[in-house]
Structure formats: C-alpha cells, structure tokens
Task: structure prediction
Amino acid sequence: MLESKEEYLTEVSFMGGSVDYSAKTGRDMVYMEGNKEGYVFAVLQEPGQEEYYVYGMVLNADCKMERSHYMRLNPANSDKITKFAFHPYYRLLFYATEQGDIYQFNMNTPDEKAKKVLSFPNEHISVLKFNQLVPYIAYSDWEKEREKWLVIASYDKTKEESVSGVLRMYEFPEVTSDPKQKMEFIDLGKIVDATYRFRNDEPNL
Result:
C-alpha cells in the first residue's frame, strides 16, 4: 500500500515539440487499455455529463511520453453508454449502450459519428472486450487472428425468473469491414467476465 504522495506518479508531462501537454484534463478517466501499436488509450468523461473524450499516449524509444490522440467521442446514440473496448490493432473504439447496441468509433476520422454495428434489443451487455495474447508465447496464425474477435456477453433483461446468458464472438477483419459472427454460446448464466482458450481451433471456455 502506498504511504506517501512521493511514492507514485501524480502527473505525467508529455514531451516532443508540438505535442507538449500536461496530463491534467479536468475529466474523469472511465476506461483505459493498450494496443498492439504501442499506444495506450483512455476514455475520459466530462464530470456530471454524458460527454466523452479519447486520450491517447505513447512511450517513444527515447523514453519520452507523448500525447498521440485527444478528441471528443462523436456518438450517434442518445441512450447511456455502459461499456468500452479498444481494438488491439485498429484505432477503433467500441462501446455498448443500455439499449443493447454496439457502436464503433473510428479515431482516424473523429469528425464522423460513431456507427451502430450490432444490436441486441432487450439485452443487457455485461462484457465487451478483446482478448489480447501474451507477448512471450509463440502462437499459430489462427490463434493470432482471435485477437481481432470482439467478445460480447449479455443476458435477456425481460426474463425475471431465469437468466439466459449469451456469449458471442465477432470478427472485424479490416478497419471498415462489417462484423462477422464467429461463435455463439447460449443458455449460460449471468456472465461477469469471459476468458477462453483454443486448442486445435476449438474453444474451451
């Protein structure tokens, strides 16, 4: 447990010419995740408002931290956002809403609104994530492709007496491609997290 303020980093100064920037934004961080490009992305929320920003940072070879991205999330929905997930390879932010919809926001074109890519009416989405592989194990090509699969767990909100959980996996092979459903598992319990592995291209949950 940290005992004093001096034991941990309280502010990050970003270096590098035009990207000099103090890490103080005045906004609350609600989600953070790294990707395979070496970026770390955070979702920031304006206090007391349903307004979100994407903040990106990268550690350069000379050990200087640089701010790489800072943009307002341009949503296309009016209902509450509940979950976030960053694609491990593409600069895409996925988010789920309380209505059971999944949206995709392209950070390369921040002026364009996020687009709805999936919809599960009457379902509560409890898990939204990509499973990244650890870097110290040699994986087969088919295993590496699994990192591009978006994992979505949900359950039917209309069933009060029984839980009908569903685990779905979708692939986004390219930045602009539509999702392709790869697997679906039904009649599960209320899922709070999902971890899986494949052997000979078959899943073990």
